[in-house]
Amino acid sequence: MYGYQRIDTPVFEDAGVYLRTTGDSTDVVRKEMYIFEDRGGEKLALRPEGTAGVCRAYLEHGMSNLVQPVRLFYIAPVFRYDRPQAGRYRQHHQFGVEALGDADPALDAEVIDLLHTFYRRLGLDDFRLQLNSIGDVMCRPAYLERLRAYYADKLDLLDRDCRERLENNPLRLLDCKNAGCQPIIDAAPVLVDHLCEPCRDHFATVRRCLERLGVSHDLNPRLVRGLDYYTRTVFEFQPLVEGSQSALGGGGRYDGLIELLGGKPTPGVGFGTGIERIILNLKRTEVAVPGGASPELFVAHMGDGTIEAALDILMRARGEGISALMATGGRSLKAQMRQADSSGARYVALIGERELESGEVTLRDLTTRSQESLPVADAISRLTAS
Fold this sequence. Notes:
About 35% of the residues lie in helices and about 25% in strands. The protein has helices spanning about 15-20, 25-30, 50-60, 105-120, 140-150, 160-170, 180-185, 195-215, 255-260, 275-285, 305-320, 335-345, 355-360, 375-385; strands at about 5, 10-15, 35, 45, 70-80, 90-100, 125-135, 220, 230-240, 250-255, 270-275, 295-300, 325, 345-350, 360-365, 370-375. α4 (about 105-120) runs parallel beside α8.
């Protein structure tokens, strides 16, 4: 639908892939990464997020030589040391996409629209898109100086984490969830008011494209995301449930990340969304989740020598693209029919000694409760036509 191709990266990488890109002052690096040494003394890390590993693979496999942008997606386990709680697990699963090699703001809108469509197709609609621009290396440094100056006489009002952020990563001050810091954050300078002209134009185009795509959003000047590699566009999809602070998913643009990994400047944009977080919201909003597909045919057999004939029918049915199961365990015919009912199959093909002698099969329709004896080939044809 969107033209993204799957990529699978290792569960663990050289720890430097994340340490160089994610940011020394982020919670991911300081508190949440699983880092260990292998037998050769190399420092490795369990994957805490998907983007850095995909960018490493982009470099390592020469994807810059492909037609740009390279559109990739992944579904993978990620690992964060955290206190397990609702929607947060030390091992969870993430669906993400990355579009690499193009700085066009229309690509930002495409990525956002993809995630928006994904949630809608799942049946989720009680969320709101939060959008912001955090500038780039041209305009952000001057803003950070303004922010430091604003906080300079408020040190006594900050908690320990925020005092560290002021020193190491002042932009993260705007992401503080401490209730006592909220009045200070509300009065802080707004970054979108200090963007350079290229960043302003980029952000304006993103918003126009989203409007054209029918994706409504709220401008949230305090949204900064938790990883240091973001530039320009950042976004989150926030549940509307009152008091919720857990985003369904989010992402943004990271035009300097591949350069941090040793590559040439390469723009990129993407998102990540936690599967367990999605499941939690599906349950909360009581969205009906379709069950797994039921088999079309259940093969029951009774009597000496019938298992070979049952296996033949099973193989022929599957060869014609018919999903089929066979009874096992030497159960009685009555028990096999109960098993057929519980499997959800519409048809039962019954092979007994009589059918074995006649070369036919008894085909029973569990919906109409009708049955007839047919040659095996005719029974398979009946199923493929239904």
